[in-house]
Amino acid sequence: MEIGIVGLGRMGANIARRLMRGGHSVAAFDTNPDAVAALAREGVRAAGSLESLAAMLASPRAVWMMLPAGAITENAITELSRHLGIGDTVIDGGNTFYKDDVRRAGELLVKKIHYVDVGTSGGIWGLERGYCMMIGGEKAVVDRLDPIFATLAPGAGSIAKTEHREGRDPRVENGYMHAGPVGSGHFVKMIHNGIEYGLMQAYAEGFDILHHRSIEALPESERFTLDLADVAEVWRRGSVISSWLLDLTAMALAEHGDLEDFTGFVEDSGEGRWTVEAAIEEAVPANVLSAALYERFRSRVERSFADRLLSAMRSKFGGHIEGRPPAGKTS
């Protein structure tokens, strides 16, 4: 198939490469001309603007947006829609808020332009591993774009089939699904990322406990100096908590055992907040996911006001004097 791609960052550029490797014709645009030039050397048809990108494609056109959520994506879709026509499709593969998808689809429908939202997971590894995709949109449009999704997906690989799935959509076993109408793809991806926050926090806290088992505050006979890289590695092999996140943890600990190269300042990209908001709307308890989000906020504050106020209260009601963290504990 022929497709246009807007946004050639870490994921967008690799999406273009994977599609080219799969035999698709790719035209691409980015506001950074160096990013476009780099891919042009690999066979992408380079566009100097959104207008020229649209002109390069034959109708019905499909353009995949891979941009940061928010105003950047909003403005790019608004501009692109001026150069598209009846029956064309805008695909948003970024981490857009699902309610924005629903609104945009309605706005584009007036121009008879289709809109498809694709929650895309795979990060910088997607070029080789493929991308897990959760897709929202009209069935006929999603089906027409299936060759694109099939190429980007990881495929069944060596993962054993789940029993009792007879008669279900076979695309799911290849790593992509049509989740439902517009917005549903990004909604499923949003919850995916909220769960990701919780899993990452659980690993982080567990390894922190392991890391501090040698502190002087403990009885000497109960102190253990543990090789965390080896712990992560052994857990990868047959453990019930094995996962790709654990694979990446093992890699990080083997390469940076003391983690001194990292500040511990953890950003959140929005999906965790939206997941908690959805839980509130639905009155669904989400204790772990909420706590994981708040811990990311916590990581950005050293000796926060709240910490200082707690110390002050303890001083006032009990005469407690501020102490030092246990030896070996730095935060």
What brief labels describe this structure?
alpha/beta, 8 strands, 331 residues
Q: In terms of per-residue confidence, which ranges show pLDDT below 50 for 5 or more consecutive residues?
A: none
Structural class: alpha/beta
Report, as a whole number of angstroms, the end-to-end distance. Answer: 53 Å
Mean pLDDT: 93
Number of helices: 14
Q: How many β-strand stretches?
A: 8
Alpha-carbon Rg, integer: 24 Å
Kindly state the percentage of residues in helix.
40-55%
Coarse morphology: globular
Description:
By secondary structure, this protein is of the alpha/beta class. The protein has helices spanning 10-21, 33-40, 50-56, 71-81, 98-109, 126-129, 139-144, 146-152, 184-211, 228-235, 244-255, 271-282, 287-298, 305-318, and strands at 2-6, 25-29, 45-46, 62-65, 89-92, 114-121, 132-136, 176-180. Strand 4, helix 4 (71-81) and strand 5 form a beta-alpha-beta unit. Helix 9 packs across helix 12, helix 9 (184-211) packs across helix 13 and helix 10 (228-235) runs antiparallel to helix 11 (244-255).
Task: Tell me the layout of helices and strands.
Elements: E1 2-6, H1 10-21, E2 25-29, H2 33-40, E3 45-46, H3 50-56, E4 62-65, H4 71-81, E5 89-92, H5 98-109, E6 114-121, H6 126-129, E7 132-136, H7 139-144, H8 146-152, E8 176-180, H9 184-211, H10 228-235, H11 244-255, H12 271-282, H13 287-298, H14 305-318
Parallel strand pairs: 1-2, 1-4, 2-3, 4-5, 5-6, 7-8
Antiparallel strand pairs: 6-7
Helix pairs in contact: 9-12, 9-13, 10-11, 12-13
